[in-house]
Structures are given as structure tokens and as C-alpha cells.
């Protein structure tokens, strides 16, 4: 058995139910990303499992290809990595989703069945673990919930007995797969880490299946005053051999210990690391990170790096390592990395190759499309914090992706900029990208580099532009994490700021924004930097931004960074930026900021900046504006601007806020009617259609998903266009420069694309679909075509995944494929039948994101004493923005529902609460039913809707279910 436990993720970034037709799609790339855990199947030697920052995946061909393995989970795409294989059982798995629901699988994750148990506190950040004991015994290290045990395969849990300390914080538990009565558990409580303390958390060992425990108070070589040391990983070898990592990850000194008697006695070793694996056949063979020992941990040899590099030289850090059950007969080795996906070796680590095909866990935060070839898309990896990612990917014909990072010493990227005067050919394009990274030489990491990177050959090779920018050195300061780069479109020569745009180049004047370089005394330069020589040299351009407030007691208040920067399309001297603020008390705890953050404006090419935030929301009792993380300006009217604001506490109760200015930033007013996603991070204006603007919102979880929103009236009203997106949705947007109906989004699961088919009533269902519906496109028989009614939407379960967002690059035949489906015989009943959603509400005239959902892609609907519900006619999804309450007719064409049918809802029973996700009896919502018509009543913030009440929106997923199981008392 391999017990997965790791703690490097600070927050959960899971996506949930893809509230769309393609909930279980693996994604179209780029593939790879953050690997949380790797585990070989205990029997099937070519099968390996990967827990990632965006879900659970399985490979049946030794890592050559991967598929998502989540069918049946109420909260899809778990990121916590809390799972375990069942010893001696091919395909046996136990897993927690991110809401704390516990599941078992007997078919390698192809399907999951809930045990009925929900953790008191949802697992997060990998600081919990599972282990399989004898018979039907399970162990759960529940963090602050202590050590729990189940005697009924996970249906119920109780606190461990036998002398195990009650109330302890327990983050790891493991059992010996050859003798599951041997159990090891590690505490992570507040051990005495004072200068005179031992700093050691005990290791608890049971040789009796938990009937009694022995505390190993101070494993040899593990005492360190001033630290809080504890068990971080356990791996059993054959027989009674066990290896473990023990130490304080915060100090980077987690070292190897070993035992030959199931943990009763330990020996210390000199090797340090974060990941651990042991050979299933040789007690002396083990791996710590990318190092192998064949003498029981006495000495280690680094694994080869051939093929295991990114950014040219660096071997990524190891987050997980695994070998097959019949190692070394099958000499495969798999390594998981923090941001660069999986590497696989078929020759015991001598040679490596990336093994990511199908792992959709790349966090894409930057997008750019080349105008000379719009299938050539650049995608930048974001939020790689401790190790490098591949950094930059480029799409290829056919929808595949290549890494494009030769000499690109970037960990993460936030903006990709193409110089428009050089884009006649891809090879001749000058381009820039910004983020953060380190310089490397001979495989050794040096100091932070500037974070500004330039290519003059379309991204084939890169240089780091350091000129004039302080980099990390003895003082520890550098230019900071960079966010945005823009170019002055008139800077190919000395023309005036209002002259015509350059047509030949390259452009010379550039602006970059970021975190800057605080010096601890108040000065904070380099939050904005400017170059007038094409990036060769840079100078600070932050005059006018407020200095940091550094108080004598150690408290700080600062405008800590600049995210967006935009330029007036009519005058290159006029620029706007968005800033964010932070404040800390003397202990380092966050407090309400008081420094003047918000939108700033320059009218002299960035030489000076003045606050332009009148009307923007501020923190309570503070002049600091909520974080302003995206800005946009109207190319047809330079006085029109939009900005998004976010409370840095990420309150789940409020929709994402967008404000508009019609006077060049002098004043702002709210402009987010119809936006329901909670975390707007990107704004994009369509340059070819005045008044059309897009907003991308991240989500806070399955019960409050994000989305992409579109306005065609300058931001007065917004319509969600989110069918097909995952719940955590989008943080980057780009339009196809040759076809503005094609939109791209960067997500935590790679790149998604949307072909915007004609949709007159903006309900999410293309006109072609509604026009092909019953009664010649007038399914509700009211004399008006459904395609022209905002409150009436008709689609078909046969069209799951046929419209809306799709992972990857859009095939040119997508509209034709939909037309071919619609051209066939019109389905009548059953799983391919039509359904119509008709909304009746005084304030609820608009339905959006109406789509069929495949019931097989969500959690199985099984209820004790009732059996399993089935959904022969499929289930539906729709949202009603700006809606307090509504009656909704949902009609399944030519269907009739008699005995054994009921109405079911899939979602949170408490709006906004992820932990209550699942199937629920929704009989209370039904007003009436007749034939194929179900009339239900829905209310904002009430049962039957996903979102919290403050969003003023109703999001419903569900449908008619069939169940002919009798109750145990004999009544149906």
C-alpha cells in the first residue's frame, strides 16, 4: 500500500463539477502541472495513479497516456491528494474529495462509490492521509481531528484508542501492506520548539492493529532545538522494513530514518528530501526525491537527468516518486514534480521523458495568439512558486502543444506580448513575457533574474532583460514578481504621442508592472518600470505611488504591487494602473490596509501617477480600495474604462465586482449586472465590436463557480457564457485576431476555447439547436420561436458536449459537427430526447448557460433504503441571474413520468457550501407535474440553488429520476 501525504500546497485550487456537458474531459492541454502524489497499483504493473492540483488521473500504460478518473465524485477535480491504494487489490482505491466526502473504487477510479462518511473538516493542502488496515479497517489521519479509525470500510469513524493521545494533530498514518496490523502514525501538534525544547513530535507505532500504541519520543538524529519536527512521509519495503522522512519542512531539513522492525526502533541517515518510495522486493533499495540508495539509505546516488529538464538546465524538484509492484522486473520509475508534471523512466532512472499526455493540471495565466497563424497560441504557466515550470507552451497544428522555453529562465509567467509591428511571420516576431524566475548556470540556481524575457524569433529562443533592474543579491531584494507588460504602439520612432500607430518596428517603449523592491524604510521603487530601447535597459517609473508605512513596532502598510497597466488608444502619454494593498501588524498577521491603493493615472508617459479611484469600493474604515487586478479601455471611446475589484479575503458571499468610468478615470460606478462569479480576474475588449467586453471570473469552489461573462452594451449588462468551463474557471482571456467569435480562456486545467455560435436570446443554447427542436423550434407552443425568447430554452440530452467551451484548440469543423447531429432524425424520448426550460418570474426573464449534463459524469445517486436513482432522460443545468425567485417549467418532449419517478437536485444543500454537495431529494421544489412537464419553484439563496444569496442568482442542476426500489418497510 502507498499512502499519499504531502504538504507543499498552501491552498486548495481544486475545480469541481464542470457545470456543463463535458464535466469529465481530461482537457486539451497543455498537459502536466502540479503533481501532488504518484502511486503504483499494487497488482497491475503498468498502472499508476496521479493526484494533481486539478484532479485525479490514471495511466494504464506506464505513464504514456493518462485519463481523468473521477466519475462518481460529488466534487470533481480534487486537489488535496488524500487517497490510498488497497493492498493486494488491483484497482482498489480510497479517496477524499475536496469537500471531505469519502469514496471507494474497485475499478481503478473508473467509478467511485461514496462510503457515506464526510470528514468533520474538509481535507486540504495534503495535511491528512489514509491507510488501509486489516479486513474492513481504515485509518484516517484527520489533522486537527486526530487519528480516526473505521471498522466498516469507511462508513463511520471513531477516535483511535489503545493509548493514542486524544486531541492530537495527526497528519500521517500508514500500514504495512504485507501485515496491515502494523500501523505507524505521526503527530504534527505544537511540539516544544523552544530553545531548550526537544522540538520532536513523537512517532506512534502499533503492532496490534491499533489495540495498543507505543510512542517513539525522539527518533535518533531528529532532535533540533528551535524547530517543530514531525513525520512527513512513510514507505514500507518488503517484510518489516520501513523508511520515513522526519523533520521540519519549514526549515528544509526533513531527513531520512529507517526501521527493520515495523517502526519499533529507528536509525538516522544523512539524506534529506520531500518525497519517498521503497522497493517492494528489496529491503535495501529506496528513493528519496530523485536519489536512489541500494544499501538501505547509507548512501545515495542521484538519478540521471537526461530528459528530465525544463528551462534548458534545471531538473525540477520532486514532489512524488513511485515504482511498479514488480520492480525491478519492470524497471519503470515515475517522478512527479511541483509544476512540471510527470517524468517516466523505463530503464531504472538512466533516461527520462515527460509523461503528461492527458494530465490537465497546468495553470495557464497568460495567453497570446499569433495573427499570422491563429492556430499558433502561446500559453504561459502561472503560480509556480517554489520550482520552475515549463513556463511557456505553444500550440501546434492538430491541437498538440510544445514547450517553448529554450534559455527562458522563468518559473512562472503572467503576460505574453507580441510586438504587432513584427508579426508578419512567426519566425520574425519580437515578443516579451514577464513573471519571475532565477538564473541558472551548470545546473546551479543563482539569484532572481529580472523576470522580463525577450525573443526575436517568435519564441524559439529567449534572453533575460536585466538592464538597470536590481536582482537578488546580498540584500535579498529584487524587482519582484512581475505581472504585466505593454508596448507603446507609436514608439517605433520619435513620433508624437497622438500620431498614427506604427506599422513597422520594432517598438521601443515598454512598461512593466509588478511587486517592486521595498527597502524596509518606506521607499518602494520598481513597481512600474519603463524602457525606451526595446527592453535593453529599464528605469523606475513609480513616482506618485505611496511609500510604504513602516511603523516602529514592526507593523507595515503598503501598496504592495501593481497588476494591470493599460494605455489610452488615442494618446500614448495617458496610462492607467491597478494596484493592491497589504498590511501587517507587529506579529506579521494581516490587518486592514490603510494606504491609498486603487486605480492610478499618468498623463506624462508614466513619469508621475495620481490616484483616480473616486467611487471604487474600499475596505471598511479604510481609504484602501479593494484589489484592482484587471483593467480595460474602450478603443472606440478612450474615456470609457472598466476595472474589476476583489476583496482580498475572497468573501464567498459576493459576486465579482466590475466598475466603469465614462470620464477617463475621474469617477467610477458599479457595472456588473449579471456577473455571478465571485472573482473577476481578467477583462478583455473586442476591438472589432464597440461595446463588447468579456470578463473572466475564477470560482471559489463547486458551490460558487466562476465563469466567463459577455457584455454587448459597454458593461451595463452581462450574460454568462460558461457552458463547458470547470468550476474554478478562467483567469486569462484572448480573442482570435482573425475571428472574434472564437474566445480562449486560461484555466487551472489548461486552455479552453469557445466558438460562439449564433445565439439570439443569449441563453447559452445556439439558435441552430433551438430551431431544430420540437414543433419547428417552438417547443412551448406559444407562437414565438424559442431561439428568440430569453426565458425559453430548448436543447437535447443528445447534445451533451456539442456546444459551449471545449478543452484545447477548437477544431475548424466544430459548427459542422453540431449541424450534422441536428440534421439527423429528431429524437423523441429517452436519453436523446429534447427538453425545454421556460422561466416564469417577474424579475427573472433571462436564462443563461442552459445545457444538458451527462448524469454519468457526476456522483452516483444512491440512497440507503432507496437504492440507486437513474436518469434516463438526462439532467439539465441553467442559471437565472438577477433573480429573486421563479417558477420554472421543465418539459421533456414526448415523455411521461409515472410511478417510480421523482425530482432530484445535484448541488449544495446549503447554497455556497461545498461540503454539502451531492444528490438531494427535491420533491419540495415541485409545484406540479403532468406528462413530461415538471413545474418547480426556485428561490435565490435557498435549497435548489448553488450560489449564496448575495449573488442574486439561481443556479440549478438536476432532473427527473427513476427508482422503483421499495422502502424497507414495504412502502414505495
Structural class: mainly beta
Mean pLDDT: 89
Strand content: 35-45%
- Spatial strand sequence of the major β-sheet: 45-46-47-48-49
The number of strands is 73
Write down the Rg: 28 Å
**Helix share bin:** under 10%
Which stretches are low in confidence, meaning pLDDT under 50 for 5 or more residues running? 1-27, 193-197, 966-972
Globally, the shape reads globular
Count the DSSP helices. 3
Distance between the termini: 43 Å
Characterize the main sheet: 5 strands, antiparallel
Description:
With 972 residues, the protein is mainly β. It has a domain at 767-807 and 815-962. 2% of the residues lie in helices and 37% in strands. It has 3 helices and 73 strands. A 5-stranded antiparallel beta sheet has the order 45-46-47-48-49, with no helix packed on it. A hairpin with a 7-residue loop joins strand 28 and strand 29. It is globular and about 80 Å long. The chain starts with 31 loop residues before the first strand and ends in a 10-residue tail after the last strand. The model is unreliable at 1-27, 193-197 and 966-972 (pLDDT under 50).
List keywords for this structure.
single chain, 972 residues, mainly beta, five-stranded antiparallel β-sheet, disordered C terminus
Amino acid at each position: 500500500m502507498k499512502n499519499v501525504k504531502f504538504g507543499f500546497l498552501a491552498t486548495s485550487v481544486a475545480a469541481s463539477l464542470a457545470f456543463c456537458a463535458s464535466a469529465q474531459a481530461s482537457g486539451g492541454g497543455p498537459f502536466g502541472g502540479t503533481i501532488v502524489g504518484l502511486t503504483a497499483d499494487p497488482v497491475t504493473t503498468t498502472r499508476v495513479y496521479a493526484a494533481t492540483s486539478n484532479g485525479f488521473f490514471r495511466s494504464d500504460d506506464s505513464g504514456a497516456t493518462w485519463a481523468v478518473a473521477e466519475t462518481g465524485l460529488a466534487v470533481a477535480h480534487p486537489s488535496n491528494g488524500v487517497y490510498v491504494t488497497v493492498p493486494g487489490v488491483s484497482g482498489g482505491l480510497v479517496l477524499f474529495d475536496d469537500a471531505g466526502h469519502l469514496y471507494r473504487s474497485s475499478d481503478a477510479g473508473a467509478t467511485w462509490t461514496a462510503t457515506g462518511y464526510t470528514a468533520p473538516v474538509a481535507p486540504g493542502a495534503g495535511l491528512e492521509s489514509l491507510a488501509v488496515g486489516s479486513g474492513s479497517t481504515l485509518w484516517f489521519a484527520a489533522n486537527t481531528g486526530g487519528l480516526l479509525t473505521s471498522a466498516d470500510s469507511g462508513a463511520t469513524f471513531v477516535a483511535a484508542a489503545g493509548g493514542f493521545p486524544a486531541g492530537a494533530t495527526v497528519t500521517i498514518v500508514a500500514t504495512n501492506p504485507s501485515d496491515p496490523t502494523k500501523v505507524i502514525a505521526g503527530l504534527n501538534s505544537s511540539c516544544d520548539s523552544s530553545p531548550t525544547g526537544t522540538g520532536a513530535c513523537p512517532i506512534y507505532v502499533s503492532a496490534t492493529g491499533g489495540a495498543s500504541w507505543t510512542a517513539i519520543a525522539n527518533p535518533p538524529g531528529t532532535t533540533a532545538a528551535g524547530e517543530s519536527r514531525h513525520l512527513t512521509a512513510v514507505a514500507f519495503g518488503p517484510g518489516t522494513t520501513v523508511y520515513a522522512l522526519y523533520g521540519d519542512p519549514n526549515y528544509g531539513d526533513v531527513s531520512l530514518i529507517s526501521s527493520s522492525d515495523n517502526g519499533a526502533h529507528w536509525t538516522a541517515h544523512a539524506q534529506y528530501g520531500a518525497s519517498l518510495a521503497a522497493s517492494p522486493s528489496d529491503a535495501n533499495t529506496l528513493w528519496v526525491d530523485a536519489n536512489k540508495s541500494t544499501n538501505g539509505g547509507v548512501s545515495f546516488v542521484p538519478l540521471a537527468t537526461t530528459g528530465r529538464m525544463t528551462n534548458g538546465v534545471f531538473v525540477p524538484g520532486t514532489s512524488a516518486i513511485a515504482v511498479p509492484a514488480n520492480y525491478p522486473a519492470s524497471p519503470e520509475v515515475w517522478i512527479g514534480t511541483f509544476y512540471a508534471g510527470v517524468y517516466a523512466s523505463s530503464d531504472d532512472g538512466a533516461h527520462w521523458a515527460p509523461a503528461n499526455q492527458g494530465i490537465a493540471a497546468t495553470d495557464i495565466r497568460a495567453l497570446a495568439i499569433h495573427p499570422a497563424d491563429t492556430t499558433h497560441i502561446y500559453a504561459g504557466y502561472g503560480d509556480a512558486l517554489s520550482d520552475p515550470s515549463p513556463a511557456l507552451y505553444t500550440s501546434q497544428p492538430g491541437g498538440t502543444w510544445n514547450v517553448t522555453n529554450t534559455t527562458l529562465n522563468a518559473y512562472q509567467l503572467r503576460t505574453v506580448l507580441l510586438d504587432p509591428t513584427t508579426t508578419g511571420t512567426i519566425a520574425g516576431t519580437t515578443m516579451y513575457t514577464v513573471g519571475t524566475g532565477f538564473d541558472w548556470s551548470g545546473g546551479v540556481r543563482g539569484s532572481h533574474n529580472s523576470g522580463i524575457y525577450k525573443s526575436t524569433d517568435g519564441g524559439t529562443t529567449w534572453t533575460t532583460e536585466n538592464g538597470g533592474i536590481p536582482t537578488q543579491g546580498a540584500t535579498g531584494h529584487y524587482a519582484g514578481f512581475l505581472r504585466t507588460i505593454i508596448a507603446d504602439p507609436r514608439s517605433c520612432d520619435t513620433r508624437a504621442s497622438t500620431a498614427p500607430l506604427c506599422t513597422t518596428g520594432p517598438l521601443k517603449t515598454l512598461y512593466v508592472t509588478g511587486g517592486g523592491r521595498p527597502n524596509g524604510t518606506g521607499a518602494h521603487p520598481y513597481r512600474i518600470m519603463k524602457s525606451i530601447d526595446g527592453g535593453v535597459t529599464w528605469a523606475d517609473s513609480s513616482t506618485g505611488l505611496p511609500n510604504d508605512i513602516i511603523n516602529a513596532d514592526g507593523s507595515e502598510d503598503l501598496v504592495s504591487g501593481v497588476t494591470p497597466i493599460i494605455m489610452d488608444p488615442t494618446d500614448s502619454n495617458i496610462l492607467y494602473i491597478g494596484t493592491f494593498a497589504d498590511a501587517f501588524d507587529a506579529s506579521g498577521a494581516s490587518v486592514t490596509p490603510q494606504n491609498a491603493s486603487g486605480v492610478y493615472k499618468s498623463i506624462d508617459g508614466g513619469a508621475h501617477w495620481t490616484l483616480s479611484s473616486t467611487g471604487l469600493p474600499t475596505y471598511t474604515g479604510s481609504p484602501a480600495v479593494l484589489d484592482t487586478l484587471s483593467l480595460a479601455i474602450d478603443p472606440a471611446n478612450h474615456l470609457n474604462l472598466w476595472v474589476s475589484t476583489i476583496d482580498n479575503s475572497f468573501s464567498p458571499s459576493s459576486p465579482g465586482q466590475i466598475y466603469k468610468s465614462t470620464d477617463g478615470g475621474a469617477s467610477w460606478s458599479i457595472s456588473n449586472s449579471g456577473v455571478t462569479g465571485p472573482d473577476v480576474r481578467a477583462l478583455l475588449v473586442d476591438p472589432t465590436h464597440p461595446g463588447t467586453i468579456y470578463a473572466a471570473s475564477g470560482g471559489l469552489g463547486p458551490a460558487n463557480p466562476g465563469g466567463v461573462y459577455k457584455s454587448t452594451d459597454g458593461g451595463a449588462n452581462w450574460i454568462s457564457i460558461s457552458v463547458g468551463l470547470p468550476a474554478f474557471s478562467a483567469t486569462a482571456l484572448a480573442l482570435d485576431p482573425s475571428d472574434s467569435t472564437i474566445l480562449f480562456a486560461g484555466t487551472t486545467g489548461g486552455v479552453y476555447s469557445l466558438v460562439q455560435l449564433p445565439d439570439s436570446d443569449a441563453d447559452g443554447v445556439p439558435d441552430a439547436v433551438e430551431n431544430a427542436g420540437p414543433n419547428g423550434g417552438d417547443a412551448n407552443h406559444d407562437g414565438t420561436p424559442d431561439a428568440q425568447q430569453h426565458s425559453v430554452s430548448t436543447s437535447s440530452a443528445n447534445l451533451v458536449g456539442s456546444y459551449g467551451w471545449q478543452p484545447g484548440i477548437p477544431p475548424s469543423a466544430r459548427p459542422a459537427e453540431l449541424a450534422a447531429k441536428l440534421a439527423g432524425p429528431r429524437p423523441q424520448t429517452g436519453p436523446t430526447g429534447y427538453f425545454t426550460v421556460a422561466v416564469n418570474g417577474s424579475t427573472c426573464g433571462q436564462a443563461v448557460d442552459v445545457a444538458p449534463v451527462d448524469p454519468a459524469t457526476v456522483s452516483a445517486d444512491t440512497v440507503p433504503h432507496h437504492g440507486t436513482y437513474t436518469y434516463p432522460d438526462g439532467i439539465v443545468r441553467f442559471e437565472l441571474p438577477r433573480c429573486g425567485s421563479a417558477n420554472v417549467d421543465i418539459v421533456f418532449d414526448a415523455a411521461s413520468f409515472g410511478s417510480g419517478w421523482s425530482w432530484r437536485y445535484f448541488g449544495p444543500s446549503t447554497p455556497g457550501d461545498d461540503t454539502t454537495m451531492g444528490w438531494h431529494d427535491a420533491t419540495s421544489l415541485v409545484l406540479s407535474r403532468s406528462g413530461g412537464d415538471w413545474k418547480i419553484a426556485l428561490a435565490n439563496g435557498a435549497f435548489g440553488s448553488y450560489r449564496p444569496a448575495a449573488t442574486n442568482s439561481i443556479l440549478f442542476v438536476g432532473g427527473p429520476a427513476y427508482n422503483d426500489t421499495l422502502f424497507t418497510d414495504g412502502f414505495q
